[in-house]
Amino acid sequence: MFKKLKFIIYTRPFIFFSYYLIRFYSMTFRLRILNEKKWQKLLKLDRPVILCAWHQQFFSAIRHFKTYTEFNPGLMISQSRDGDLIAGVANKTGWHTPRGSSSKGGKKAMDAMVDHLLKYGFGAHILDGPTGPAGKVKPGVIKMANKANALIVPFYIQAENAWFFNSWDRFMLPKPFSKVILRFGDEIDISGGKNPENFEIQRQFLETTMLPGLILKNS
Q1: What single DSSP character describes residue 9?
Q2: How large is the angle between the packed helices 196-210 and 140-148, nearest 10 degrees?
Q3: Does the N-terminal peptide bond of residue 176 adopt cis geometry, omega within 30 degrees of 0?
Q4: pLDDT for the residue 129
């Protein structure tokens, strides 16, 4: 029975159902967007932009991120079965999804993501995904930003009322009709990170910048 259920979850009809369920559920959020215009102006420059967030909070952004379809956004997603479901939903939201992670297919996916950034100039990245640990910036985003000469823009999500799952990332699901704030930070230029010493400095700087936005418990 469990194997049959798992098979159903990863089928196209279920992905289709999940997409509209997420859209419907997210429409109950009282969404407020802060500091979005500033980074969107950066897209007119000659340098790509990478939006970065914690794995804990990405669900809350799915509804609004559909509005970015016109920018041809890209997002690297793992090759796991869970990744199949996430990628299917992301594709229906208008996002391109190179597949891979540090454990499988990472180099190929990163190269595809860099090519995407160089061609279209826009993408996003989950800093501590797909398996954590929570709040730990993995080196992939620094490598990606250096190869594409991209600017990093942090974004943080807060929910007035939310459930927090007992998972490695304390996954956050805003409750229906909760006020949800999606706030974008100032851009971070990590050029110069190719030097091994500077690389780690830039990774730690991004981690320190992002950590205040990680929610460890429901306040």
Answers
A1: H
A2: 110
A3: no
A4: 83
Distance between CA atoms of 110 and 106, rounded to whole angstroms? 6
Bridge-partner residues for 49, per DSSP? 122, 151
User: In the predicted model, what is the mean pLDDT of residues 149-157?
Assistant: 96
Asked whether the bond before 73 is cis by omega within 30 degrees of 0, the reply is no
Cut 0.70: pTM above it = yes
Q: Is the pLDDT of residue 103 over 70?
A: no
Query: Cα–Cα distance between 48 and 36 in angstroms, integer?
Result: 16
Helix (H), strand (E), coil (C) string for 76-145: CECCCHHHHHHHHHHHHCCCECCECECCCEHHHHHHHHHHHHHHHCEEEEECCCCCCCCCCCCCHHHHHH
Amino acid at 107: K
* CB contact at 8 A, 170 and 216: yes
Residue 120's Cβ-count burial label (10 Å; 0-12, 13-18, 19+) is middle
- DSSP assignment string, 36-81: HHHHHHHTTSSS-EEEEE-GGGGGGGHHHHGGGGGG--EE-B-SSH
- What the chain holds in terms of domains, given with CATH numbers, is 2-213 (3.40.1130.10)
In the 8-state DSSP scheme, what is residue 175? Answer: P
Residue with tokens 């690389």: 199
Please state whether beta strands 151-159 and 74-75 pair in parallel, antiparallel, or not at all (unpaired): unpaired
